[in-house]
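Can anyone check this?
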Amino acid sequence: MAQNEQRGGSGAGTIEAAASQQKQIQSRQNDRDAHQGRSQPSGAVQTSEVVQPAPPIAQPHLVKPGVEADMQSKPRFLAEHYKGSGKLQGMAAIVTGGDSGIGRAVAVLFAREGADVAIVYLNEHPDAQETQRCVEAEGQRCIALAGDVKDMAFCQDAVEKTVQAFGRLDILVNNAAFQEHASDLLDLTEDRLEETFRTNIFGYFHMAKAALPHLRRGASIINTGSVTGLKGSKHLLDYSSTKGAIHAFTMSLAANLLEQGIRVNAVAPGPVWTPLNPADKQPDQIAQFGADTSYHRPAQPEELSPAYVFLAAPVCSSYITGIVLPVTGSVGE
């Protein structure tokens, strides 16, 4: 025993001292816990001078596809503290699903950075008109194109009209999406699978194929993925599957187009306050939307749009392609 103690350099006294030190640390922490209680979330986390809304959220159910103008709690998209600096000066962009939500916020910031913007949308005409007004208020041109991205002919027509209007195309943002929850795999009928996959992933392929002949070196494609594509969602089986496919499409297309000087990236948002969610869930379900994130609240669209500017602007991200950028509001995701 003595030989072992000498070799290890720790006698019985040293061992007992270490154990005593650990007990003292434990005792002090136990005292703090008893007086302070367990650390509990103190509400929504804010990491900028702009205080964003937090649950509980009062919001009636919306009829699909969901009109932002009908929302009781309006999403924030103007990013009034964001100052443009010409990062996209002279460029032209298409944003699908650009009438509302993330798409609207992206269109506004692209315009603030100097780009003309075409917004593609389904039939939410009041929202599209408001987005067009906001883009033009930034001093840029905007056209609004109604149609279904499941239709390849429409996608080709939308791209042609954009090039005719602006004389070029530099940025494609694939953002249009369909989402409907389901508690059981057996709820996923064939027509529903068709609608979800054809909108969310076929539409991305269609728009990329239509845009590609017009894209030149320095151009970029940005796809909207989702945290559900990273970790799945038990009540969004079809939707999360399409988002996983979008992530794989992004990385594959990035490799395919790199030699042409065209970058392809994706943004994977967590919960974001847009018409997509109250058009999917009932008021009691939406009340705590985003509360399970590290921020204890959903993001506002204006908190996502700068990520799209970053990925679109060659001055910011010329050495970045094939990434899925998570903006999830949760640590480690």
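Reply from J.R.: I decoded it. The longest strand covers residues 263-269.
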